[in-house]
Amino acid sequence: MRILALLACVMLCSNAFAECTTNARGVVDCNNGESAGAYNRNTGNAVVSEKNQNGVTTTETSKGGEAKTKNGKGVYTSPSGKTCAKTARHQGCN
């Protein structure tokens, strides 16, 4: 849950490198040629998530933040390089 809050903070606290808009089909397209899974029009931040064959979901923002999560546990790396982790017994940032 904390990782999701951190990811939301990244989305709300930064400006976008790519300009994104919603097209007529409701798909968010960005001027860098990528499609976004979500887009915050107030901050201009786009987010895309992918799940690999092992069930790990990788979520990246247009600002450079990245979260890798699975089964409620995960690691978040901010654009500035700060890393936060949540395991079954511990959570915190370096």
Total count of helical runs of at least 4 residues:
1
**DSSP E strands, number:** 10
Morphology call: globular
**Could you report the average pLDDT, rounded to the nearest whole number?**
75
Order of helices and strands: HEEEEEEEEEE
Distance between the termini: 18 Å
What amount of the residues lies in strands? 35-45%
Largest sheet, described in full? 7 strands, antiparallel
- Radius of gyration, rounded? 14 Å
Poorly predicted regions are 9-17
**Helix amount:** 10-25%
- Structural class of the secondary structure composition? mainly beta
Major sheet strand order: 4-5-6-7-8-9-10
Give a quick rundown of the structure.
With 94 residues, the protein is mainly beta. The chain contains 1 helix and 10 strands.
Would you write up a description of this structure?
The chain is mainly β and 94 residues long. Helix content is 12%, strand content 43%. It has one helix at residues 2-12, and strands at 20-22, 28-30, 35-36, 38-40, 45-51, 57-61, 66-70, 73-77, 83-86, 91-93. β9 (83-86) and β10 form a beta hairpin. The longest helix is centred in the N-terminal third of the chain and has 11 residues, at 2-12. Mean pLDDT is 75; it is low at 9-17.
